[in-house]
């Protein structure tokens, strides 16, 4: 028999174990404070071909810098406005334009160092193709910004249907469980939610808070999912990765020719 105190700990944190439903939800809220740059491989499922065809390699540096390559190294896209002036944004004087990036504000943490309550901040990840790419990098849609009151059943964004387990995903520790959407579930992109109708197996990387796998268990294999392989976290990334034209400085070790003009006299 589960007591009220045990149920409260499982749902809201406190002394909840690392594999509780509360810890899983807090991990889903934690991505903005766990990393600043990420190098990874991203594959959507069901794909139109083998993984090598559908997979893209990504370099992401917060906020907003993204480079994408195909499996054969072809450049698919890169952000080019990372150094643009923001004068027009601030002149608009909207409240949102003055919000700080998430890593500059402090959330409420639980005893395990995961985010229990997210503050108001400038959230948002670069997108590719559809909203699933950005949602996977910060899967807060699976948990909401803060815990819900215990007395309201099915008030969480998604319902945790199976015990949360610690698993290994591509050599890294992750938390895995099966979830289903509640009426209050609000995905970042309604066309490509992380948790589709029915049951979805979700895997969240313990070190970054990124949703590294979403596998729909219903729908006959036709519902979309994804898989991420994390290659490096907080790796130093130069601006050259994210601009159309590299800004390499002159290598002074090489001979620089100085063409001479003929004397007009």
Q: What does this protein look like?
A:
- There is one protein chain.
- With 265 residues, the protein is an alpha+beta fold.
- Helix content is 12%, strand content 26%.
- The model is unreliable at 1-14 and 48-53 (pLDDT under 50).
- It is built from five helices and twelve strands.
- The strands form two sheets. Strands 1, 2, 3, 4, 7, 8, 9, 10, 11 and 12 form a ten-stranded antiparallel beta sheet that branches.
- The chain is elongated.
SSE arrangement:
Layout: H1 4-12, H2 21-28, E1 37-45, H3 51-54, E2 56-61, E3 65-70, E4 75-78, H4 87-91, E5 108-109, E6 115-117, H5 131-137, E7 158-160, E8 165-169, E9 172-181, E10 200-205, E11 211-216, E12 225-233
Antiparallel strand pairs: 1-2, 1-12, 2-3, 3-4, 5-6, 7-9, 8-9, 9-10, 10-11, 11-12
In total, the number of strands is 12
Protein structure class: alpha+beta
Question: What separation lies between the terminal Cα atoms?
Answer: 103 Å
Indicate the proportion of strand residues.
25-35%
What percent of the residues sit in helical stretches (DSSP H or I)?
A: 10-25%
How many separate helices? 5
Shape: elongated
Summarize the structure in short.
With 265 residues, this protein is α+β, with helices and mostly antiparallel strands. 12% of the residues lie in helices and 26% in strands.
């Amino acid at each position: 028999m589960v007591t009220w105190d045990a149920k409260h700990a499982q749902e809201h944190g406190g002394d909840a174990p690392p594999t509780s439903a509360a810890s899983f939800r807090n991990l889903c809220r934690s991505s903005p404070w766990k990393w600043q740059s990420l190098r990874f491989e991203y594959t959507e499922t069901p794909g139109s071909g083998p993984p090598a065809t559908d997979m893209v390699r990504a370099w992401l540096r917060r906020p907003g810098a993204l480079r994408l390559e195909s499996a054969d190294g072809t450049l698919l896209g890169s952000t080019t406005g990372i150094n643009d002036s923001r004068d027009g944004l601030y002149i608009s004087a909207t409240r949102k334009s003055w919000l700080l990036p998430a890593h500059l504000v402090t959330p409420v943490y639980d005893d395990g160092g995961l985010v229990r309550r997210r503050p108001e901040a400038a959230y948002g990840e670069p997108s590719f193709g559809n909203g699933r790419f950005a949602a996977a990098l910060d899967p807060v849609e699976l948990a909401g910004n803060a815990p819900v009151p215990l007395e309201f059943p099915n008030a969480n964004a998604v319902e945790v249907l199976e015990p949360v387990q610690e698993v290994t995903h591509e050599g890294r520790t992750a938390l895995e469980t099966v979830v289903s959407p509640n009426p209050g579930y609000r995905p970042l992109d309604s066309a490509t939610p992380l948790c589709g109708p029915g049951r979805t197996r979700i895997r969240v990387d313990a070190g970054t808070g990124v949703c590294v796998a979403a596998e729909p268990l219903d729908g006959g294999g036709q519902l979309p999912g994804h898989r991420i392989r994390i290659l490096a976290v907080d790796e130093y990334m130069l601006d050259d990765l994210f601009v159309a034209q590299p800004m390499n400085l002159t290598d002074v070790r090489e001979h620089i020719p100085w063409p001479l003009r003929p004397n007009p006299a």
